[in-house]
Structures are given as structure tokens and as C-alpha cells.
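Journal club prep — side note

Before the paper discussion, L.F. wants everyone to see what a predicted structure for a comparable chain looks like in C-alpha cell form. Sequence:
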Amino acid sequence: MLEQYVKRILNAKVYEAAVETPIERANSLSARYANNILIKREDLQPVFSFKIRGAYNNLAHLTEEQKAKGVICASAGNHAQGLAESARRLGVKATIVMPRTTPDIKVNSVRARGGKVVLHGDAFDEAAAYSRELMEKHGYTYIHPYDDPMTIAGQGTIALEILNHVREPLHAVFVPVGGGGIIAGMAAYIKYVRPEIKVIGVEYEESACLALALKDGKRSVLDQVGLFADGVAVAQIGENTWEICKDYVDEVITVSADETCAAIKDIFDDTRSVAEPAGALAFAGIKKYIEREGCTDQTLVGVCSGANMNFDRLRYVAERTEVGEKREAVLAVTIPERPGAFKKFCATIGKRQITEFNYRLADANDANIFVGLQIPAGDGRQKLIEKLQETGYQVADLTDNEVAKSHCRHMVGGRSTAENERLFRFEFPERPGALLNFLTQLGKRWNISMFHYRNHGAAYGKVLVGIQVPDAEVAECRETLDNIGYAYWDESDNPVYRLFLK
């Protein structure tokens, strides 16, 4: 099987559209982690993503009859742009079905490259199903974003370039994983030519479909997919890609949103370029691998797979970077409600920089403060907490608490006396009418006692809602929320809620 893919890779037709991207040394990251860390700059492709390689290779191998009928795909971003650009260069009509939640910047980019955009559904699955209907109706050829041998071979040319240019001993190559097209193509080539090199996949923890498949020994489907790293938001590894990955990928590392944000900053510091979340995954994985293995003086290559970042998302990324780099602790601390208490607290924490301080009078005796503090990397957070506790403060560590980081730190108004209140965290699709749809389906049965929404530049917005629901009606309320169809979590037992909002 590998030999077949290597032949396809060697004969791939990508360079009529794609460019051979440079491999640059990440000087700051290399110095900090005592290894030679290299960046494969796929963000420098004409469509700012590696996806043009597979899309063009697939189109270039179609028959003239297939080209004449046109092509179609479903995509929310990079594959759509790669296919539109490839079709433009080859004079092929391309139809791209995109969810209605797709940001305008990506829709406009596809149209600017000559692609016909059809907006359908709120999620990728609905768009994909509709694209298949159009394919059957009009006789289009479907160009899969990852699960096609020609697409896989096109992406595999990245590995060919790496091995041609990195002459020193290469310890490992780190590759972002969504449906598996790029890692399958690269693994096939690397393991055939240089089997001693490790091929390590990196997945966002809320869309880790390859990690799940390797654990189960089959192509399992994730119950839910997180959308922060939208370029890899896939629920199931591809069928063709799985046949390669299960035997030739050495391991998969999963990383959090905060760790990904920190990696985006690392790439920016070394290149002055802003990677999209999926594009930075490999470098979040490299850092975790080095910390786990304790390796030094090794050459490690990461693929920066794309830079199609929505500008609105930069605020969110910047906020989460310090936490992801383990240089900020987010804490709830109970201090006495009396003059001089804040000064004493500041004296206790010493010269640490306060990054955030939120407080509102709650009762006459104690004050719960929400505070962010800069800390040294490593075990600085735990030492800080221990010092505060030794001084007599009650401390709750909120650094990994999603409600605290996404909502509570931005909310004002203090505690509520609302009876029978339950707290729910939602992901609303970013489209007109999403809130009205929610309120209409929720009906007038239960009162909304709190609401916080924040746009962070993704297809889905983060929403925190308080709903007054008597205990006897909780099951019925959850059934109603299930029927609305928006992803949600019950956060009624979250410590942040008890400390600051309830």
C-alpha cells in the first residue's frame, strides 16, 4: 500500500497551483525548549493553507468528461478555497456548499476565486448531505477534502519536501489531524523512505477522532465535536486515511484550546505570522512532547498548516495565551470585607503582576475576588496557591474552568436571588435568528434569569444562560433543550457559579 501512495506522491500534480513552501527555524521556540524546532510554512500557500495541494492534484487527474461536468464539495473553509482556486486555474466549474454559519471572509474568498457558493444548513453535516444531493442531480464529481487517494497524495508532497531539505537527523514530524488527509499522505511517504522518523499526529482535544479510533481499534465516531479549531473539526477519521494512520502513525497527542492559543503566539513570535488554530496544533504538540520526553538537541518539524484566521478571533486567542503557556493563574480568593484587606492580599502575592481583578460587594464579612496573576512557567501556580492558603485565604483554582474564562470574567452585576435557577452553557450558531429560535422553542414555561453571550470569531458563539426551573421540571427542561438542537452543558454545580453569580 505504501508503495502505491509513494508513486502517487512522486507523480502528484501540485506545483502548477501550489508552491514549495520554506522550512524555517523557530529560533525563540528552539532556544526555549533546547531543541532544533523547524516550521514547515504551509500558511504561505496561495490560499494560505496546504489544502490546495490535494485539491489541485485531484482535479488535475480527472478525465476531460469529468472536468466538463464540473466538481462539487462541502467545506467550511480551507478546502473550499483550495478547490475554488484549483478549478479556476484549470477552467473547471466548481460548486462549494458551505454552512450558513461560515464567516463572510471565507465565503467571499471562495467567490473571489470563481467558485459558486451554495449556503445550506447550520452545520457541516447538513452542507455535506446537500452537496451529495447536488452531485447526484447534476452529475458533478465530488472532490473530498481528505478521504480520497489523490487528495492524500497531494498532501503527501509536504513530506517529500521536508525530507529533501532537512539533511540533519530528523527525530519526529508533527502533523495536525482532522479527517486525516495530510497525516496519511505524509506518513505514507516518511515511513516508506525514512521509517526511523516518528510521525506524530496532533489533535484538538474536542475533535480527537484519530485518537479515539486508535484507542478503539476502529473508526469510531465522536459524540460531539468542538469548533474552536474549525479546520480539524471532524467527528470520524476517513476510511482511506485510517488504513494508513492505524499502521504508520506513531502516536497522537491531544491539546487544549489554551495550549493552541499559546502555540499561535509562539509561531507569531518566530515568524510574525498569525496561524489559525488548526495551523498551530503541531507546535502545541511539539511542546507537550518535549515536556513529556525531556528530549534535547533533537530536530523536530511541525507543519503550520494554515493561516485563515478570522480577525475577530484574535481577542479570544490573546486572552487565553498566557493560561495556555502556564504563565497565568486564574483564582477565586476569599478575603475579609474590611479596609486594608486588598492591600494585605497584594502584599501576600508579592511582585507578581495582577492581570485581572474583579470584585463586587456580596456580604458584610467576606469578599470573593476573581483574580488573574502572572506566574512563572512550571509549578508556579501550585506554589502560589499554597502560599495563599498558608496565609489563611480560601482559594479555588479556576485556571482550567471554561465558565470562568469564557464568561464570568466578563460579567457584571453580582449575585442573584433568583429561585430555582439552573445554569447552562451553550454553543449557538453564529447566524441571524439563532437567539430568537432558542427563545421561541424554550417558550414561556421557564424564566431566563441570566444571559451572557460573547462572539470570539468562530462559527458558534459561547452563551451562558440562567433558567428558573423547579426541581420537578428539570427533566422536562432538559428534554426541551435537547430538542432545540444547540450543544449545551449543565453548569449548575460549577464552583464559579456558586462563588460569584448565585
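L.F.'s comment for the group: The chain has a mean pLDDT of 89. Keep this in mind when we get to the figures.
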